[in-house]
Amino acid sequence: MFALLTQDPAKINYVADPAKAPTLDAFGQLPELASTFGHVDGLFYFTYAVCIFFFVLIVGVLLFSVVKYHRKTFDQPAASNVTHNTPLEVVWTVIPLIIVMVMFAWGFDGCMDMHYAPHAASQNQFKATAKQWSWTFNYPNDPSQSFNEVWIPVDKPVQFVLESTDVLHAFYMPSMRVKRDVIPGRLQTVWFHPKKEGEFHLFCAEYCGDDHSRMYAKVHVVKQSVYDTRPWDQWKDATPAEAAASGESLYKQICASCHSVNGTPSVGPSWKGMFTKQGENYVGRQREVVEGGAKKTITVDDAYITESIQKPDQKKVAEEPYVKNAMTAFPTLEERKIKGLIQYMKSLADAK
Ligand SMILES: [Cu+2]
User: Does residue 205 belong to any structural domain of this protein?
Assistant: First the structure.
């Protein structure tokens, strides 16, 4: 009977890559993948069994009574007029009460388990930022980001800090049995323990506008050794020349209106001479900047440039007229694009 409920793993969207899909059980559910499994699925099957039991019991008694006690002739008088049976009422109140209490205790226990991450999970903390209509991921102890795809190590409890930059969203991974609202301005977290390698879907489970249905991401659960190669870093295998080329095209699109690369003054300082080459190394120039009203001299490096792009007002170039000019902030520019821009600035030192 339950075989009817079994679905083709390729057709259900829990798993991103059907070829890597684990076999499903009789209910069309994925097998154990997360530590919270026991609570969610156990409770699900228990509730399901209770429902079936009482459905069969009640409908059975009903049908039996209809057949056995229905009026045989049109004018047959009622055999009896029972209005009360106190012991029976106590029984059908107390038994369901006990069952519902069991469900509550079970569910509450599971809820607490999901709510409070174990120490190991909070030590392995990722960030998922939801916005209309995509997911951005940040990695623990790693400056990189990835988009609509995230890699996590297998068999290691993991916690996601959830952030929304616009409206309500929800972090929903059916394969790990977790779902949590992502609420703007409020810190929400979710944790789970991925036990099998594979590719799984993360859905947005809170209607958030036009493309809500397409707001899903792939979660790659991989071996620690694979994780350590940082598969999310798209510049990992790129040559510096490739990164610089991508940086140059981005420069032309969004930075060239205010920065030249040939020394010509513009709204912002020229990038010429930002770095010089000494042997194989690029060395940043000395820069006098104003930070919080105080002047100081810093050496230009990747961190300063990244900050200049994300928070241009933090350290203003002290030189006239630039100190008075404002730069557009690009707080959400992808990390790989920033890297490309930096590589392009460095490559300017190669030219001569
Ligand atoms: Cu949504």
Answer: yes
